[in-house]
Amino acid sequence: MAAIIADAMPKSARTILDLGCGSGRLARAVASAHPASSVLGIDVSGGSIAAAVHDAALEGSTARFQQADYMTFEGGPFDVIVTDGVLHLIPGDTRALFAKLSRDLRGGGMLVCCMPYDCVYNRTFAVTRRVMRACRGPWLDSLILAVARVLHGREMTTDALRERVPYMYIPPVRTMTAELRDRLAPSFGLRSVGTRPMPSISLSQLKHNVTIFQKDATPA
C-alpha cells in the first residue's frame, strides 16, 4: 500500500490524512517519503493510537496521531486522504461518507483508498462473516485470535490482534462497485483517475483494490 501511495501521491501534497491509521505504519511510511508534508493519522481505537504514538517516537517519525471517529472528525481540508481497509467498515450512509471525504479534500486533492471490491469471493466472505456473527462465542474468539497470531504475530502484538477480533464478525457495509466509483463519488466531485491491484496477504481477508480519486478543482 505504501508503495502504491508513494507512486500516486502528488509531490506538492503538504497536508495528508491517514484515515483509520491503525498502529500507524502507513502514516509513518508516508511521512518518511514526504518529509516536507504534515501527516496526521486518525483511528477510532485508542489502543491503536497509543501504539502508533509509541512507534512514531521510537522511529523519530514526524507523523502525528489522534483518536477520532471520522464521521465527527473536524480537521481538514487536506491535500491527500489515504485509507487502507477502512471505508468498507464505517457504518452509515455511503453518500454521507463520500460527501464528507469530498469536504475534507481541497480542490484538486486526492483520495487514495484501498477497499474491497465487488466480486464473488467478497460476497461469499460477507455471508461467512454473518454466519460467524450468529455463532460467536468465546471459543470462536479464541480460535480467530490463535489464527491471527500465526498469520500476523510478527507485525502486531497480541493485544492489538485481540482488539481486531470483532472486525472478523463485521460484513462489509459497502464495497467498491462501478456504481460507487463512476456515479456516486463523481456526484461529490470525486473522479476516479486510476485503479491499482492490491495483492492479497491472507485468505482471512477480503480482496481489495486501490482506487484513486481526484477532487474537482475549486472554481477560481
Written overview of the protein:
It is a single chain. By secondary structure, the chain is α/β, with parallel strands linked by helices. The protein has one domain (2-117, 173-215): Rossmann fold (3-Layer(aba) Sandwich), CATH 3.40.50.150. Helix content is 38%, strand content 23%. The protein has 8 helices and 7 strands; from the N terminus they run H-E-H-E-H-E-E-H-E-H-H-H-H-E-E. It has a 7-stranded mixed β-sheet, with helices on both faces. The longest helix is centred in the middle third of the chain and has 15 residues, at 120-134.
Task: Name the descriptors.
seven-stranded mixed sheet, 220 residues, globular, alpha/beta, 8 helices, single chain, Rossmann fold
Uncertain residue segments: none
The pLDDT mean sits at 88
Number of strands: 7
Helix content: 25-40%
How far is the N terminus from the C terminus?
34 Å
Strand content: 15-25%
CATH class: Alpha Beta
Question: Strand order within the widest sheet?
Answer: 3-2-1-4-5-7-6
Number of helices: 8
Name of the CATH architecture: 3-Layer(aba) Sandwich
Morphology: globular
- Biggest sheet character: 7 strands, mixed
Secondary structure category: alpha/beta
- CATH H level, superfamily name: Vaccinia Virus protein VP39
Task: Provide the CATH topology.
Answer: Rossmann fold
- What is the domain total for the residues? 1
Helix and strand sequence: HEHEHEEHEHHHHEE
Cα-based radius of gyration, to the nearest Å: 17 Å
